[in-house]
Design goal:
This protein has 131 residues and is mainly alpha-helical. The chain is 71% helix and 5% strand. It has a two-stranded antiparallel ribbon with strand order 1-2. α3 crosses α4.
């Protein structure tokens, strides 16, 4: 489709052409993929564009594979640098967190249950006074 502006005509890609990269990578739904494949069968220019998108995708994959990953030494240096940084103020344990850390999980659960019982008794006592 060609749209015209005041200065010169501008080609606007159709929906099928815009979806070609997603078709190549397999990220289209079944219905959309079927529509785009039907458009490819009808339009030879679109089929050429699809071939170009496939080639570009394959070249990108080959390029990324050729780059390789970081060396184990670089990863070690990164983790060392991260560990050497001080914790942010909000990540430091406060007094309450340090006190709760000494409690074992069963003891902490028991303390929470006891606190809940105390709250329920208080609610019952104060609720009875209001009535």
């Amino acid at each position: 489709m060609i749209a015209t502006t005041k200065s010169k005509p501008v080609e606007v890609p159709c929906e099928a052409e815009l979806l070609l990269p997603w078709l190549v990578t397999g990220r289209l739904g079944t219905a959309e993929a079927r529509r785009v494949r039907a458009a490819l069968a009808r339009d030879p220019d679109l089929a050429r564009d699809y071939t170009a998108v496939q080639e570009e995708y394959n070249e990108t994959i080959l390029l990324h594979d050729a780059l390789g990953g970081p060396s184990p030494r670089a990863m070690h240096n990164l983790f060392t640098a991260i560990e050497s940084e001080p914790l942010p103020a909000r990540a430091r344990k406060g007094r309450a967190a340090r006190m709760l850390a000494v409690l074992s999980p069963p003891l902490l659960a028991f303390a929470a249950a006891a606190a809940l019982i105390v709250l329920l008794v208080q609610a019952a006592v104060f609720g009875a006074r209001v009535l």
